[in-house]
Task: structure prediction
Amino acid sequence: MKQEEMGPSMKRLLAGLAAFLWLGLLVGGYFWAHKPFDTAVVTAVSQTALYILTWLTLTWLSTSLGFILLSWLNIQDDDTMGHLLLAAGLGLGLLAVLVSLLGFAGLFRPWAAWVLVLGLSLLTLPRWRQLGQAVRQIHWPQAQSGFQRLIVIYAAASLLLAFVMALTPVTAWDSLTYHLVGPKLYIQAGRFVHPLNIPQLGFPLLGQMHFTLGMLLVGDGVAALFHFGYGLLVLALAVVLARKMFGDETAWLAALVLLSVPTFFTLISWPYVDVTLMFYTTAVFYTFFRWQQTRQTGWLVVMGMMIGFSGGLKYTAVATPIAITISLIWISRKDGLKAILGRLLLVGGIALVLVTPWLLENYVTTGNPVYPFFLNNGKFWDDWWAWWYDLPGTGFAATAPWRLLTAPLEATIAGTEGSDFYEATIGPLILGALFLLPLVWRKFSRSEKALAGHMLLLIGLNYALWLNGLAHTALLLRARFLFLIWGVTAVLAGLVLAKIRTLKSPALDVAWLVQTILSLTLVLLLVAQTLAFLQVNPLPVVVGLEDREAYLFRQLGVYHTAVQEGVNTLPEGSSVMMLWETRTYACQVVCHPDPILGRFLHLTQHLHYDAEAIRQTWEAEGVTHVLMSDAGLQFLLDAAAYNPIGGLIRDEDLEILADLTTHQLRMVHEWDNAYTLYEWAPQ
Result:
């Protein structure tokens, strides 16, 4: 009886197995002949996933480290999101300091980087569970209206586009000039070095330490993701700050204002440090606000750390501690001189300790702790270079003083990213909304006025520093130098817009009109971002459907060809002097860049060399070839009417250049009248 029952069962089993094998053979054979993806796709996707995983892991470990520090300081923020953001900022800042210790010890090596990550993992392991619980406890803002849902959609779409762009090969100008060139040189040497005349390598290196660590671990694809991560952090911190100070409506509008800055999305997709500085400046004010609420000493410690991290990113952060010092003195004015001095020494001392590594690195490698400023006897530096870097007398004070008054309006309406006109597209709201402040000041409560006063002090001092630069030199006609205050500015602008919406009139629905304008702004900005994204078309290279070299050629044009086909095919040991070209990251031989476009004029105008003397000098330095950006020189000459550098190139300089290229050099190759590679002519 049992054998009879097993017969049909066995037949069904064999039939099912046969069907499975047949279908498997069919499907396997089909996709063998019609492969859905090739090795290049698998490699690219795997590499991209590795970059993302590395960035997320380092952020997780850093946040865990920040949790430990906040626990030691007995800081218990009543806002889980705010606590997480502070922990992340503290941990990432400390991570940069730890990486710098590898540089001082001569251990910029992959194995040392992995040891650092392993050690950090073991140290923070006890906090991982707490961090996971905190993440799950976050109360994300819930959109309550169509307008708020539009903000969410706009934010998600714009951030997604920026995230994809952050995964592409690096093409951003300053990254190829110094942000990644420094880490590349450090890794090659295994320690901090300053082997080339690139003054920007003297800038504080906190952000570059993140890039260096990522490059040591898995490659340069992690660098832009660090900056993207700081973009998420500053956006969230601005929202938390606005909500805690002024309420939910201001928080939504603060997010809208910050997200209305088109260059914000561009920057967070590049390995830059502007948004990193924006986060730490916002965090400085956040910790000041929390200290004002609680008067807990731990908040002063965190404030000092955030100021120190700000100073570790850019020298332009100098106005922030001045503003905070004034605010601290004002809040403490009734507490006595001893309390005031104690608080200032605590905050300032901690900040100074965290800035010291970057001052020490500069001193060791150049002889000037604040290179390239103030002292003109540092490595590669002299009085002429200091003058050229500054070009005093070319600013608005000498050329058009009235533009000092219209500068914010110019930057708002006509400022354009990638141009010489303010070098950023800042959108209509980030500065424009502040012009409405006089209309609503009387509607602020007493506490709102007090907080707004401190915010205006921070914004105002940084703005005054920027305006002083515009008055002094045309080279500082860059709205990007204001990005450090955009987080705090967005909060104040959000409050202004919230108050504007409360203006009521029987004949005019102001709230509806303002909301309509803001909605239209977001829609148009998203359309512009989408079109720009489609024009770049980054997805193929991210997923491996386009070769990396093909993408770089699409974005960098003939420059990429000149470097790849010309410079990088030169014999080993070649040394290339570059004229009117700043970018050397792609060079596989020694390249001497022209980072502030004055290398040739330094020889002709300062040292008064002729063509033969220039040859003798460069040959003595080991230079074997010269790559000249003909297009770069021509651009400066054509732009002489409004570009101070072009206007300072004399006919005598061009005659010496012609003599050099005609009699001292001979052409190796020329690319589209844009670049020419030379070698020394026989004597």
The chain has a mean pLDDT of 93. The first strand starts at residue 575 and ends at 579.
